[in-house]
């Protein structure tokens, strides 16, 4: 529903909401930790019913998008009225025509999961799997899931470790806000590059710092533990600026309508699978690799930054209906998609 020039910011509101929700959860955990009688964890867990109730009520009153109205009911008049309302103008016929064209193509697709395997959709299929996989391999969930355990391991007490998790999440939410304001001006690729370099530098620094001070045994002093906390906050800032919000934004805007459901399903499934896998294996990895775990994830960050540089075209200010043209002009993907040029008058933003 968002205009191309505002689509990045509007989409990142989603990740900002997730970040704020996790921050509130961390604050609740910190505040309930001292409650006696075993009620602390019960209160913490039961509070999840509040956002669940809001989501349920919101689903009831959520309006349909113009795309949905065209696809499900073929209600062109209602779709046009909704489009005029959300655009704030009556001059929406050109965009409506693009939506109708995309919808007519999608209706010929009987099995989107089979269709996305076709050669011409190879770039979308690769991105559907690679972007959520790389987002998990930044190591972010290692920090967010196990921040209290990690900081207790490096010398902070129980309450301090929970407070550290709150501080970390504050940095993440703050940088996601920054990303929301600059993504449609600077573009996706620039933020991916900056965030990748920042995360790589901090992970290598943390790994080297902890290797030098810890070795195979011993612990960190309180001062050293706070140094690690500062470095992790810098790392979290890089993630909040780049892979956090963009890991959801970019997949949402690269699929044509006929394979959008399949592409988004693959993206979410890959993300959750590797989130689960890393969550289940991290503690064992930490015990065996120790400080080397930061070098492990740092290597993946270097690889994914190179992947973005070479294989992801810039989607800033490009209508979703026109993103296909980017693959046709890309140095690598054009061999799969073809190099025929769209006959529309739309000019891609370079």
Automatic annotation (TrEMBL):
Mention any one GO cellular component term assigned to this protein in its UniProt record: membrane
Signal sequence region: none
Compartments it resides in = Membrane
The membrane-spanning stretches of this chain are 12-29, 41-62, 125-149, 161-183, 190-214, 226-250, 262-286, 292-312
Q: Which GO terms describe its molecular function?
A: monosaccharide transmembrane transporter activity; symporter activity
Q: What broad class describes the main subcellular location of this protein?
A: membrane
Q: CDD domains in the record, alphabetically?
A: MFS_STP
Keywords in alphabetical order? Membrane, Sugar transport, Symport, Transmembrane, Transmembrane helix, Transport
Q: Where is the Major facilitator superfamily (MFS) profile domain?
A: 1-316
In terms of superkingdom, the source organism counts as: Eukaryota
What is the membrane topology listed in the Swiss-Prot or TrEMBL record?
Multi-pass membrane protein
Give the family this protein belongs to, as stated in its UniProt record.
Belongs to the major facilitator superfamily. Sugar transporter (TC 2.A.1.1) family.
What is the official name of this protein in its record? Major facilitator superfamily (MFS) profile domain-containing protein
In which organism is this protein found? Gossypium laxum
């Amino acid at each position: 529903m968002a205009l191309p020039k505002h689509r990045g910011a509007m989409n990142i509101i989603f990740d900002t909401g997730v970040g704020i929700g996790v921050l509130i959860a961390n604050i609740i955990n910190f505040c309930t930790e001292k409650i006696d009688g075993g009620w602390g964890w019960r209160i913490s867990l039961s509070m999840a019913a509040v956002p669940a109730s809001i989501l349920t009520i919101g689903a009831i009153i959520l309006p349909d998008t113009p795309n949905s109205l065209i696809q499900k009911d073929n209600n062109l008049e209602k779709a046009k009225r909704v489009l005029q309302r959300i655009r704030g103008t009556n001059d929406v016929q050109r965009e409506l025509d693009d939506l109708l064209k995309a919808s007519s193509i999608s209706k010929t697709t009987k099995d989107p999961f089979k269709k996305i395997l076709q050669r011409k959709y190879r770039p979308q299929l690769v991105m559907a799997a690679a972007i959520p996989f790389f987002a998990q391999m930044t190591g972010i969930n290692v920090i967010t899931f196990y921040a209290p355990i990690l900081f207790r391991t490096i010398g902070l007490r129980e309450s301090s470790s929970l407070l550290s998790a709150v501080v970390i999440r504050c940095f993440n939410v703050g940088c996601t806000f920054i990303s929301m304001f600059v993504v449609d001006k600077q573009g996706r690729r620039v933020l991916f590059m900056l965030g990748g370099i920042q995360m790589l530098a901090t992970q290598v620094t943390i790994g080297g710092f902890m290797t030098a001070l810890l070795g195979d045994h011993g612990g960190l002093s309180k001062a050293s533990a706070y140094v690690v906390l500062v470095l992790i906050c810098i790392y979290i800032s890089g993630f909040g600026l780049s892979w956090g919000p963009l890991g959801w934004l970019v997949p949402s805007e690269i699929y044509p309508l006929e394979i959008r459901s399949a592409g988004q399903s693959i993206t979410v499934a890959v993300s959750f699978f590797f989130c689960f896998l890393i969550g289940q294996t991290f503690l064992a990895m930490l015990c065996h690799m120790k400080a080397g775990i930061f070098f492990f994830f740092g290597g993946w960050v270097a690889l994914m930054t190179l992947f973005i540089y070479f294989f992801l075209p810039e989607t800033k200010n490009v209508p979703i209906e026109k993103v296909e043209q980017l693959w046709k002009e890309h140095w690598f993907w054009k061999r799969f998609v073809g190099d025929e040029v769209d006959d529309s008058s739309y000019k891609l933003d370079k």
